Amino acid sequence: MTLRFYVSTVADGSMKPADKNVATVLPARTAFLAAHGIKPANTTLVHLTYETADFCRYVTVDDSHKGDGIIRQPSFDADALVTTTPGHALFLPLADCIAAVIHDPLRGVLMVSHLGRHNLEQMGGTSSIEYLADRHGCDPKHVTVWLSPAAGSGNYPLYGFGNRSLHDVATEQIVATGVPASSIELSPIDTTVDSDYFSHSQFLAGNRPTDGRHAVVAVMD
What we know:
four-stranded mixed sheet, alpha/beta, CNF1/YfiH-like putative cysteine hydrolases, globular
């Protein structure tokens, strides 16, 4: 079973609605997905909320969830989604945080997990792998991980982790579960520096003109 994943850029438009109405971003999402042979109706949104004390909310989705949050309003919140179905794409908008694309090719399991400061403070990197092991029988030794573009420590240090970067802390938490370091690939892109990607922190600092979201989508074939 093969894995494909893609990252949108500012040029693709914002992938998260400012007004919570998914219709306003459906054209941008549809064009981005279509460019990679993915249908919106076969895609499910990782819908994040911060009005919670739990940032390790994981959901295994099935065919009934296809299109949720993409072509219709989201019906549930999650910090990560898991699918075991080929052709079922998982879609995560973000700007500075990490999208961890986690794949077990032996068991045919795909997870897309949001790893920002809140998630990492609750050991979200470790919890993501443990969920796959407990719920889907995944052996961490067989898991591969790709960590998306994210804010670097120069402009976004994690004060609770000795001013290290999101990538550094996420990698440490994932390796602690038994995933080989050699099976983890980090994007070299710093979203606070590369203007091809949205950066929420740089927008708040007055260094970016718009506060949008790029997206990571992943799918098994």
